[in-house]
Every structure is written in structure tokens, then in C-alpha cells.
Specification:
3 copies of one chain form a homotrimer. By secondary structure, chain A is of the alpha+beta class. Chain A has 6 helices and 14 strands. Chain A folds into 2 domains: 146 residues, Rossmann fold, CATH 3.40.50.10790; 94 residues, Elongation Factor Tu (Ef-tu), domain 3.
Amino acid sequence: MAIVTLTTDFGTADWFVGSMKGVIYGIQPDVNIVDITHEVPPGDIRTAAFLLMADYKCYPRLTVHCAVVDPGVGSDRPAIAVRTTDYHFVGPDNGVLSWALAREKVLEIRQLTNQDVFRQPVSPTFHGRDIFAPVAARLTQGVLLDWIGPEVSDYQELEWPVAELRGETLTGQILHVDRFGNCVTNIDAEALGALSGKELTVALPGGQTCPLKKFYKEVEAGQPLALIGSTGFLEIAINTGHAAKQFNLQVGTPLEVR
Amino acid sequence: MAIVTLTTDFGTADWFVGSMKGVIYGIQPDVNIVDITHEVPPGDIRTAAFLLMADYKCYPRLTVHCAVVDPGVGSDRPAIAVRTTDYHFVGPDNGVLSWALAREKVLEIRQLTNQDVFRQPVSPTFHGRDIFAPVAARLTQGVLLDWIGPEVSDYQELEWPVAELRGETLTGQILHVDRFGNCVTNIDAEALGALSGKELTVALPGGQTCPLKKFYKEVEAGQPLALIGSTGFLEIAINTGHAAKQFNLQVGTPLEVR
Amino acid sequence: MAIVTLTTDFGTADWFVGSMKGVIYGIQPDVNIVDITHEVPPGDIRTAAFLLMADYKCYPRLTVHCAVVDPGVGSDRPAIAVRTTDYHFVGPDNGVLSWALAREKVLEIRQLTNQDVFRQPVSPTFHGRDIFAPVAARLTQGVLLDWIGPEVSDYQELEWPVAELRGETLTGQILHVDRFGNCVTNIDAEALGALSGKELTVALPGGQTCPLKKFYKEVEAGQPLALIGSTGFLEIAINTGHAAKQFNLQVGTPLEVR
């Protein structure tokens, strides 16, 4: 069965998500619609880009990933559908898709322009329902992309904060704080490899140091550690604790691995 | 595939929603169950009525819309199933269905009385699981409504706050505040039409005025505006801001369009 | 269609739940995945055990119940799959399944050890995605359990707080506070039966007394009551009020029925 995933900042207390799902089911009854999350902070394109990047590869081939964090809705910012080797992606062309796309082989990018595909009349404030939902539904039906709109050569990229290596120190930053207070950084296992062969520790701005471990219970309850998390990035954590609160860490906080 | 939508005040931290879904799947395995929302404030029939009204028309024909905000559960308040030209609606007869039904052509109203349809024993505190879920599941199977219970002639209506036109001023109020702080009013595009031909502005109780625009980015970031939102009603918003917080607006706040 | 239920402490703002669902759909496209809840407080095995116990029986036979509240992830705590007369259960062997299992006839317990079943490489911090999701998906396909791992004789039990009867007084405690502020206790209808034939009241530590009723509206709005709730346990409630806040009740608060 076809799959459409949704990543939005719509929350779950309003009518927005339900409207998108109703439109998708109306076009494609045989589809599993999966909520990646609707709790992206309003307008926070980076968080949505991170979460989509963290999740999209868990889905089977031909899944359609639809991300709608769209503060420019109704203006002339373009909307796009992107075909990669394994997936389709749909959303506003504001960078929200770009961190996932950077890890894919992009085969084709289309601008969404064909009014026949959209739900009519198109509301200037809710393209999730009127443009992105119907396009996502159509993509699960194997439509040819040239029906959606003209090919374009590029999509808007969100800058990726590259970790910097200087001598024996790798400087990175926090990209995401999860529900458990674990802090995901922009440092991946490969970057850590440049420092391998030593006992590594992560130094935080508050002076704390976190030894590099493999899982939480390798340190005592309440003790900090760093580990390669499930998305492949270095994370700061406290065993059975909340690292972000205890160490006052947030998105953008810098740190060093030595 | 059949669709059942759920609109409740059950939240998502307890066992209530899962129980309803389990019961529905047990009767009808081939169904897509869609959460419109479970975040209706406890017992807030008006908010549920508004959200159902805002969402129900996005769904394909024959969808069964089930709404359970039911402070009178266990008492003798009736429960109903309503067939309209396009949909079925199921819920307590306390007004929660009425704003959606007012926009539909009602063909048949049945009171839910047949114990054979219910999950037994019926808990006096959880009709969502024991009455509404099984009835909704049965309705997706095309059962004849006379099996559900006797026909009744009417359903309880929730009063709709009508916008008032006096001379060149239209007086309305706020019906719903969404996640973004946008404030949906009871004034629809048709009512605005009576004032057409001028540059309209909305006056708020705090003295602010919001020019009528088409989408958020027509004003600078941080500036207020009014627009016809995706549900067809006038909304008060701040581009990339939170109008409800900044202007101290809430459900029931009056406003004037001139 | 097969059903997998999920009960976790992952929240809905991160990528965790989406990843589990993607993995399940990749193995078993024809499955309904139902969220019982993801709002279990982080690491709170008892709350998850309670919610699973409250919900699991609403599902049709052969449903696979997967619960992941797993503070010991990555350590050597075992993971298990349990077959009962009607269901499969999957999760870490830390007690999270045990209150549901105590109400079932257990037929077979398997330790999850076969790396061929898991998603590879297995992250030491996210067995939900890499172990529990693929095992749950495989169980919907009717695989033989000996493919999953070796049979074991027992699972870890979470202690159940037994209500104590002394003379004409039954002493219990609060197990769960729901969204409405209703407080579910460990006293079931059977235990109450030992006191039958009198007008029962529940005495709270703050000195309040709650008469035993059948549904909320049997008392005036704002008045307290006790009733047998939809899970079969005695609950403390206030009609249209929030008993937990008003009476300062929480999980573990003792109470007496006389």
C-alpha cells in the first residue's frame, strides 16, 4: 500500500491535519498516512528539515514525504515535488526538504503549478490542504511528474552547520533537543573518525565533560555521557536525566570533542 | 476503503482513543481511522462543533464522522446517528454535531438504542468505546439505519452567533484561536460582501485596526491583518506573529468590520 | 488487516514514532498501526503497563501489542515476545508488559535474539526502531516464534499494589490520573463486592468523602463522587471538575472505601 508521511508545524488541536488527510484519502483511498510530527515549532524550517532527515530513510521505497512548514504561504515562494532514487518529496521550496535531499540522489525537480492537480479554490493560507495534499496523493498513483508542473534545475538549500576540525579538536553545535533532553549535534561518526584512537570526551560551554560511550547505562544514573545516537550523530545525554535542562543546552549551543 | 473520523476531548495520553480504535477495527478491519483532533478542551462542545464543521467536508463521500465530547455521558441525554446526502455523523445529541449538520442536507436521524449494536457491557462513563465506536464501525458497513434505533425528527442545535450588520458596520466575534494565534471569526465571505466596494478594516476592542488582505506576507512581519481564512471565515492574524497573545484576543472577543 | 499497537514514552515531537512506523510498513505494508499513546512520562514503566492493561483487550484477536518504555536500552536487559491465547506482546522485559500479561493466558515467551530479524545495524539507543518494530511486523505475518529467539520460562513482573481489606474498610491507592482529572484506583468491582450491601463512600486523605455512584451526572456539577470506571476499577471524580487538582491527588495517594 502507498505511504504518505506528513511533517508539519500544524499541531494536533486544530483542523489542519485532518483536512490534509481527508483530501489525500479522497484522491487515494489505499494509502497509509503517517504522521512524522506536527509539533514542529510554528515556522521553524530547520527543525522540520532535521526531523525529516532523521526519519525519511526508515520508510520503504516510493514513499511520498510531504513537509509543510510554510511561513511564506500565499506569497510567490515556489512549491516543489522532488523525485529521488527511492522517494518523492513534496513541500514549499524554502529549505524544509533540503537536508533530506542532500542525502539522496535527486533525479527530477518539478515546480507545482498545474491548477488541475490542486484542490479548488486554492486558499491563500492553507496550501497544505489545497496544493501539497493533492500532489502527494497523486504521486502515490505514479503520475508522470510533467503533469505536476515544469522541471526546475535546483531547490533552495538550508545551510548545514559543518563541524570544524582544528588539530585534535572538533567543534560542533547542537541541532536538536529531543523529548528526553538528549541533544543531537551536527557531528557524525565519520567526523569523529578523524579523532579516533583516543579516549574522546565532549566539552560543554558550562565546563562539563562527557565521556564518549555506546549506550546510556554505561555510566551511573545521573551521570553525563556522549554517544553516537540512532540518527548517526553525536548526542549529549544524562543517563535517566535531562541533559538539556541540567546543562542549559539548546539548539545552537557550541561544543568541542577532544 | 471506509473512513471514520474522530473528534474528541480525550487527549492522547490516556487509553480512551486507543480503545475506540480497537473496537472499530474489531468490527471493520478495512477502515482508515483519522484523528481530526483529540485536543478539544474537556467538555467544550462549541470547540468540537467548530472543528468538525471546519474539517468534515474535506473527506470523501460516505465518511463516518464521529464526535465525542460528552459531559453528560451516562445520563439520559440521547445519542444519535445522522445521515446526510454525503456523510454519516455519530455522537451525543448535545449540539456537537450541529454546526456541521447545519451545512448539510439531513436525510435521516436515528437515536442509538439497539443494545445489540453496542459493546457489552456498556460502561456508564465511556460511551465513546461502547456505543459510538461500534455504531460508527457498523455505519461504514452500510447497515440499514433502522437497525440502530428509532427515527427521531430533530437534533439539538448549538446556537450560532450571527454577525450583525448595522449601516456600514458588521459586528462579529472570535470563534476559535488556532495554534498560530490566528483568530477565526463568525464572519464569512458572504457577510463581508454586504460591505464590498470599500477598503475594509477590522477594529479590535483594544483599538487596533487590521486591514483586509489576501495572505499573510502582504503586510510586513509583525504587522496585523485580516483575511478570509481556509475555512471561509474572516481571521485576524499577525504576519509571523501570534495575534491572540499580542492583542489579548480569545473566543468570544467582539470585533467590527468597517 | 493486521494490527500493531504502540505504547511508548517517545512523545510526538521527535522522529522516534515515525521511524518505528516506517520500519513496520517496510516489512508489512498491510497493517493498521494504532497509537495507544506516546505520552507516557519518560521512563515511567508503571504508567505504560497500566495504559496497555487498560486498552489491549479492546483489540481483535491476533493484534500485536508493542510497548517501548525502555530506560535500559542498550544494556543487557532482555527483550521478549509473548504469545497469549489472543494476542502477541513485544517489548523490553522490564515489566512494561506484565500487567496486561497477568490477565492473559500466556502460551509462549521468546527472548529476542535473532539478528536476522532486526534492522541492521542495531542502534544501542533505539531498539524501538531496530528490534521491536521489525519483530512486531514479523509477528503480524504469522512467523514461527522459534525464528525470533529461544524460549524462556518467565518474564519480569511489575508488582501490583493489592488493595487490602480489614474489617469493613478497603484500603487502596491511585494508579493513574486521566486527562479529566479522574483518578483510577487499584480497587476493582470484585474487591468492592466484599463490602456490598451498604452505601459505600470513599474517604480521601484530605478528609473529603465521595459517595459511590454509577455516572458523573448523578451528583451536582462540582460535587465529588466515586464510580466503577470503564476499565473496571474504582475512580474518584468530580462532575465537570478535575478531582486530581481540587483534592491534590496523584499516583500513589492512598484512600479508603467504607
